[in-house]
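anyone seen this seq b4? input:
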Amino acid sequence: MTFETGTEYADAKNVTVWGNFAPGGSWLRVPMEKAGDRWRVTVGPMDAAFYYYKFIVDRVDKKDTGNPGAFTTEVNWSPFLIPGDTAPARFLSDVPEGEGGALNVLDYQSQVAGQQRSAYVWTPPGYDPERAEAYPVFILNHGGGQSWTDWVQSGRAKQILDNHYRDGNLTPMVVIMPTGNVSDFNKEVRENLMPAAEAAYHLSTDPSQRAMAGLSAGGARTVGMLKAYPGDYSYIGIFSAGFGGTTGIDVAAINAGTKVLRLYVGDITDFVNPGALTSVQQMEAAGIEFEFDGITVGPHGWDPWQKNLIDFAPRLFKADTSSGIPVEATIPEAENGVLALTVADFGDGVALSAPENAGDRLRMTGALPEVTVTDSRTAQQAGLGGWAVSGQADAFTSDGQTVEAEHFGWIPQVLTPRPGLSAGDPVLTVMDAGPGLATPGELASADREGRFGTAKLGAELRLEVPVDTQPGTYTGQVTISLFPVD
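predicted toks r here
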C-alpha cells in the first residue's frame, strides 16, 4: 500500500503516516520520504482488514485530503478496506446491494442532557413493523470521547450485522447505537432513549429479548446498567472494560436475570488488560456467572472491538445450547406447524481418525452425527422465509494444552437434496488461512421452496494442527443451532 501526500506539504521538514498497520491492529508511525513536491512511503504486504491512518506533518496531525472518508470524532483519520475471504475482513465488507439491513437515524429529546440527541438504528432485512412478534433489541454503546456515529463509521457495525444476517447467524433484531456521553446514562436509556425507540420501532419489552454491550467507557456504562438493574438486559457484552467492584451488588439477581455475560479484552497493548483480568478473578470470587472470551489480539482500538462484535452478535437471543449436541430449537408455532432440529444418537461423542501427516500439519477427520430439520409450518406461519442451521466449535483441551477452534473446520453436506435446500460453504481451518469454526459456520439453509418437510444434513469434520502440537487426547464440543429466516 503506497501513501502519498498532496503538494501542500512540499515545504515540510518531517512527515510520517500513522495507522493501525502493526500486527493485531496496533498503531505504527512510518516515516515518509520526500518525492519531488510530495511525500511518499510504501507499507506492506498488508493483510485483508479495515485500516485507518493520518499524516503527521512537522508534529501536527493532518488528514489525507485525497481520501476524504469521514470519522466524526477523529476528523483527521482516513479509512480504507482491503477486502478478503477470511474473517474478520469478510464481515467488514459490504454485502451485495439489497441484501443488507436498513440504517436509520432516531432523533429524540433527552431530558437528562437537556438537548435533542441522535442514535443510529439498524433493522434487519424484511423488518416488519406489523409482525405479530415484537423484535429483540440490542443497545450497542460507544467509548469515551466518541459519539453515536463511531460504531458505524469506525466499527463497521452495519457490515458486521449485514454479513452475519446474510450467513444465517443472526437472530432478526433491532440494534440501537445511541449517544452515551451523558451525566446519568441509566436514566437516559430508561427514560429517554428507549421510550423514543419503542414509539418508533416494534420492540420487545421482555427483558429476555434485550441485550446491551459497549466498548471501553461504553463497557463501563453497560456494567453500570447491569449492576443497577440486574435482569433488565439478559445479554451483556463488555469490550475492553473492567467489571469494577463487586461489593453490594446483587449476585443472585445478576445470575438469575442474565443469559449471557461475556467479557473481552485486548492484549498487553490494551491499557485495560490488567484491570479486566483482575475483574475476571473478582467476579469468580463473588460467584458471578460469566464467560471470558480470552485475549483478543490487538490494542485498545477498533480491530479488537470489531472482532468482539463479530463474536458477540450471533450469541444473542438464541436457545441455550451450552450442553452441546444434541440440540433442539423450536420457534413459536400455530396449532398445525413446527420447526425443530434433532441430532442422531452420537453415544459418547465423535472420535476423529488417527492423525494423517500432511507435511506441515496433522489432519484428523470424522463425520458429524446426522442432523434432521423438520419444518411443518404453514405458509402463513413461515411467510416468505425458510430456515438456516449453523455450527460453532469451542477450543479443544488436553491436560492444560489447548488447540483453538480455528483449527477445526467442516465440509457441509445435504443428505436429502432437493430444490431450495443447499449446504453451507466449506469452512477451512486456520492452517489453510480459514477462520475455522471459532465463529459460526453455516451447515445448510432452505428457502421458501425447499424448507417444507424433513431435511437430513451432515458434514465431514476436520481438525488440523501443526506437526509439533503437544501430544495428548484433546476434547472439544460442537454446538448446532437452528434459525427461522424471514
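Residues 54 and 64 are 6 Å apart (CA to CA). The chain has three domains: 2-82, 91-315, 339-485. kinda curious what u guys think
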